[in-house]
Amino acid sequence: MTSTTGATGTTGTSCPYCGWPDDAEPFQVVSRHGTAAGSTVWTRCGCGSLQVRAVDDRGARIVSRSRPADAPWSRAGR
């Protein structure tokens, strides 16, 4: 399942790789899975970062994020 739009929610954060606000479109929905509390939505930011969003009655929040495929890996900041 792919789409150019995604779940709406307020995360108040932005992608650390490109700076795009997490709650702004466009982002691509990669897959959506129902859970007991709501759903888990896997999305891809415009820069390529894969994100896992937990969506429930409180809205959507990003609970995990990868770096874009072309971003170099670094231990800086650890």
List keywords for this structure.
0% helix, single chain, 4 strands
Strand order across the largest sheet: 1-2-3-4
Q: Please, what is the average pLDDT? A: 79
Could you estimate the helical fraction of the residues in percent?
under 10%
Radius of gyration over alpha carbons?
13 Å
SSE arrangement, N to C: EEEE
Number of DSSP-assigned strands: 4
Identify low-pLDDT runs.
1-11
Largest sheet: 4 strands, antiparallel
Report, as a whole number of angstroms, the end-to-end distance: 35 Å
Going by helix content, strand content and strand pairing, the class is mainly beta
| Estimated share of beta-strand residues | 25-35%
Q: How many helices?
A: 0
- In one word, what is the shape? globular
What would you note in describing this structure?
- The chain has a four-stranded antiparallel beta sheet with strand order 1-2-3-4, with no helix packed on it.
- It is globular, with a radius of gyration of 13 Å.
- Strand 1 (28-34) and strand 2 (39-44) form a beta hairpin.
- The protein has strands spanning 28-34, 39-44, 50-56, 59-65.
- It contains no helices and four strands.
- The protein is mainly beta and 78 residues long.
Short description:
With 78 residues, this protein is an all-beta fold.
